[in-house]
Amino acid sequence: MTRVIVWNEYIHEKENKVVESLYPRGIHNTIADGIRKDGVEVGTATLEEHEHGLTEEVLNNTDVLIWWGHAGHDRVEDYIVQRVHQRVLKGMGLIVLHSGHFSKIFKSLMGTSCDLKWREAGEKERLWVVDPAHPIAEGLGAYIELEHEEMYGEHFDIPAPEELVFVSWFAGGEVFRSGVTYHRGQGKVFYFRPGHETYPTYHNQEVLRVISNAVQWAAPKHGATPVYGNAQPLEQI
Amino acid sequence: MTRVIVWNEYIHEKENKVVESLYPRGIHNTIADGIRKDGVEVGTATLEEHEHGLTEEVLNNTDVLIWWGHAGHDRVEDYIVQRVHQRVLKGMGLIVLHSGHFSKIFKSLMGTSCDLKWREAGEKERLWVVDPAHPIAEGLGAYIELEHEEMYGEHFDIPAPEELVFVSWFAGGEVFRSGVTYHRGQGKVFYFRPGHETYPTYHNQEVLRVISNAVQWAAPKHGATPVYGNAQPLEQI
Amino acid sequence: MTRVIVWNEYIHEKENKVVESLYPRGIHNTIADGIRKDGVEVGTATLEEHEHGLTEEVLNNTDVLIWWGHAGHDRVEDYIVQRVHQRVLKGMGLIVLHSGHFSKIFKSLMGTSCDLKWREAGEKERLWVVDPAHPIAEGLGAYIELEHEEMYGEHFDIPAPEELVFVSWFAGGEVFRSGVTYHRGQGKVFYFRPGHETYPTYHNQEVLRVISNAVQWAAPKHGATPVYGNAQPLEQI
Amino acid sequence: MTRVIVWNEYIHEKENKVVESLYPRGIHNTIADGIRKDGVEVGTATLEEHEHGLTEEVLNNTDVLIWWGHAGHDRVEDYIVQRVHQRVLKGMGLIVLHSGHFSKIFKSLMGTSCDLKWREAGEKERLWVVDPAHPIAEGLGAYIELEHEEMYGEHFDIPAPEELVFVSWFAGGEVFRSGVTYHRGQGKVFYFRPGHETYPTYHNQEVLRVISNAVQWAAPKHGATPVYGNAQPLEQI
């Protein structure tokens, strides 16, 4: 059983009628419903909950955390960010969506500004698969097309991805590295670009397929057990 | 069901008593027996069989091919190498073991000489996990220790690995990038260093665990479907 | 002094009036003239010359080889391809341009099909810099714009680039990894997409700047001296 | 002219007679003297200076910063760490040495714990070149040997290196990724393992050669100029 928590700041849905109509129970519940299936148990957590819904107990029982944030990045407590960071290093998978590129947790895991170009013009985005062997691209065609999305353009100030899965084309003339993977300690991180709150992106079956694939990819495998600190020699010196 | 074929040139076992005593039914059968389990169907193929046991039909029904060769590299027909190469690009996983570094198929997939330093002195090898988040390292400790192995030392003339999972320490003073992954087309390739024929390496449970993990990692995921060739524009130009 | 040879099949220029008018002395001479400067000595070689102009002596005195081929890939002799391949592994830089993606030398260095989507529609290409720290991007702005180019689209069947410097946007809706680097043995390889023969791409100062930067990047640095083959232990075993 | 600052906490040299005798004017001055040459201007800075010697003006006039710290990591002010971090993202090269793996600046650029195994036993270290094409390995042989060093062993909790240049062998049985490169924003980062304060490592000519090579590699190239923030479309949508 893979245990997933979808975290959402849950702000826009309560302040903007367009967002509310698209995601009446919040982006988190739409994503959770869209990826729940046999073998995958999905819960949610939001900014306003106690410790943002990310207590030690919750995180210790989470295999993969999905993160959507935007207007409330600064309201996420630093000690919670530290806690999530530590859990990732210990093996929890993390999937950061869209405007989460500027979240404290993503920036602290990347070590860069995570800045980018952007534009809200409802233009067409086409996400091309550039690594068809990657499990996160499982079941897709050559690309995913989204009729209306916010534009994110290069330069995206992230470390060179360990694996580059998607590159986006935008009608307005830009490109973007839209699906990128990293290992951090024993944990895996996937950033996936689409998902502006005023578009129905998280109702798109291919977008949900990618997130669902990423959950499988990011789930910890009870990997090797590294050893740190002072150590006696294994051989006679 | 993941369908695996273990390919072995099957020469040393018939010519060398030490090797025969370690692997009486051939290295291929020892490996096949060691990784067979629920959900994994394992067959074998050898150099002397018709088309080296790698007919179109066999390969089209193989998800992961494991390759052990040494003395007979030159006796593998070029058209079979081409056929395996094409199958890898179409999605078949390939696990190349030990002296397979000099096989035609590995060299053609790498594009380099695949040369290295080597020594047969039965010295100790210790394979350190350098990427504990990697699924191929699942279930291991900090390292695998092999009391007696052939030494392979750097420089190993391969392309920079896409993922580096193991680095070996040798008693004689060398190191080696011992577990390395690549994507090639829609297929995945894993090279794993240990397995000299005069040592009982493929009876080691941790070595078998790594190969078994690698089978899961390399099995095709019915990935994205790329499109090639001349194409009409998707947008009005 | 960095010694460069620009190799060109030199076929289209003699058969097509448009190409001839753009490159009256051949693409090779336009590129050579465009990158010649203090400290860089540039010669040319073509398919019709003895040994395609790539004798042992020429290659042994070349630091960086630039390759433009298209209609004549099959007419390049295999033993010359082998010779160039060996020189790359020994340290010679190689810059492969545009339709050179299907050259024998590039495919043998990559180990993949190097296939892609393509379209001749004279559409706009915009090459975005995705790694502004890379020396090959020195002196550029955020992107290079080419008013008319042939389209190459993903999936581009190459190994994951070691460094991804440029990603192209095309008006017709595709993207492409347009500037990619690899190490192969002691040599460095850079593939750069633009340069269809019917457009004035190699007269563009930014394109020439990229090629010129790439020459500096790819020039051998009298690097470390690897050792291969059978070796005595460095430590008492 | 490449402008280099060697930063050192300068603590052990004043507290430990062994260290003082090896580095009477401090590790920083030994390194500075060892890498100064035509075209490279080298200064120093230490913890006790005003703003640790790293004022805005100093950093704005520095191309490459070299960092040695150990006992005083916590005494480095956070705002100075932020300042250095920002300068790296804007293009300044950073070379982190030995125990600097636990410095605030390195950890914030990596996003991981940067933890490792260690042992002070004065054992032999042999640094193998695993990427002979890399400019940082220029002029070396197959390896560098250091008779006495502190051991650092895997797992080293860093992001997968973008380029892996050296792997260390230790007499006590461990290995370590000893020379690793990263791009961060417009800046380049090189971590180089050797240099425990009680050994004469920074008097070793090959170690100095590596640091000197790394300075050339890390020096900013007046690279591409990325653009961030809200942007008008480049094409009609």
Automatic annotation (TrEMBL), chains A, B, C, D:
Domain ThuA-like: start-end pairs: 3-218
Gene3D superfamilies named in the record: 3.40.50.880
Pfam family, one: ThuA
Protein known as: Trehalose utilization protein ThuA
UniProt lineage: Bacteria, Bacillati, Bacillota, Bacilli, Bacillales
